[in-house]
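Researcher: Structure for this, please.
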Amino acid sequence: MTFQRILQTITFTAFIVLLYLAAFPLMSPVPVDLFLRMDPLVLIGTLVSARAFIPLLLPAVLIIGFTFFLGRFFCSHICPMGTTIDISDQIFHPGKKGGPDIYRPVPASLRIMKYLVLLFILGAALFGVSLVFLASPLSLITRLFGLVIFPVVALLMDMGLFVLRGAGEILGLSIFPYTAIEAPRYALQFFIVLIFASVFGCAYLSPRFWCRYLCPAGALLGLCSFKPFMRRRVDESCTRCGLCVQKCPTGAIRTDPFKTDFSECIVCLRCTDICPERAITFAFPGRNQGKAESPLSGQRRKVLGAGLAGAGAALVSLSGLRQQHRGEAPGQIVPPTLIRPPGAIPEADFLARCVRCGECMKACPTNTLQPIGLLSGFTAFASPVITPQLGPCEPHCTVCGQVCPTGAIRSLPVSEKIWAKVGTAYVIKHKCLAWEFDQECLVCDEVCPFDAVKLQRVEGLRVAAPFVDESRCNGCGFCEHHCPVLGDRAIVVEPMNALRLATGSYREQAEVLGFSFEMKQQSSYEPAEREEKDTSKGFEDALPPGFTE
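Model: Predicted structure, token format:
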């Protein structure tokens, strides 16, 4: 195994392990979002769109700095997207085993595409619209593994346990009798799958098609490495066999083995490994044997056009009906499902920073964080929202802020987090068992960790009916999650009176606004116990037709 493959294996394994450890409670001594912090596109795109430097992204600064010296080493040795594409290229390789590589011809001029994608994203970022999530390699690959592959693996493992238990019963053995693996569920999975099906399918056109022609992070690194200090050198023992030209995964060696396009070279060292004459080395300093001009030289019109297209896309999206603007001016159309995680900064700044990596969704212990669709406009697409029906927001959990690589969700201690009000619950009386059907139900009162739901006697009803004390409601969603009513619950959470702060103390601001959040002792989220204790007692014999436990 070559040095590159060894380092690729180590870094890819580290990426998978850190993503797996992105869970509550955090147990990793290393930041689980370390790879996201290395993405140069996340750094530059967020820097421009948010108008702020984010210290969490210092690893990306180091990557860019080393690129000036070593070339695009990140693409071939560290980037998990590149490693995944290398694996898929081996699976979908169109060439015959043992024979020459056979690819359909792709014009070399298409290489400019990745630079145009980069400029499009930066053009939009100038107007505060972050489109980094569309093409950031680390954001894309984190979504693939965190929101698609991990849940599928968990589901398969749970199915395997079921089969083992069945086999054990036949054999008279007790195998994993109390073990279960709960697979999380996420929205927009097929959108993610469609993107990667396209990326992987491009292996039929050329190896590392994404890296060669589309990756804007690779384009950014290419601009930094068009004249690196460490360069590929070919000595006079070269016989011009053309093997390096044929096997270069990014086409950095065009037709002349003595010449190298350094902005395309990912320093994979494959040419040095396969050269029969050992004529190729990477060293510095050395004389320039390849093109040293910028890859954007002579492309002024295309550069300007891409930047203007990005700016135009930003302006069109900003004028959209559902686009959330700064402030709380009348006329804002806010969908009732737009409940951001606790600690999320104000909406405009949140969208400027959020790269839709899905790390917070993967880490959420209750599976309540989900990617939103187009309900809040294109600029909010795939950003995280709380979905109380699926799960409540556990008051003691602060993991979403701890794993956010850009600070779109602030990292808060528990003492601050419980004051970060995300919304307010209200009762839909015509669906409530107590209000509409005069049937006793205690669920919302029992499960509320902040004692914000009170049961009171109402004239005309035999049973006590629920009321919500808005000043005590944190918006956690326990009441909505456990409500036994099907469809839209009889008590729901909306983003009314949500507290969004970029800086400062949530507690101090909440107290100024008259909020008072005091937690009950039994506020820990325990799914198995909750289902048995809370949703199956108190109304078994009182449910009208159409309702279930």
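Researcher: Any notable elements?
Model: Residues 123 and 249 are 30 Å apart (CA to CA). The chain is about 40% helix and 5% strand.
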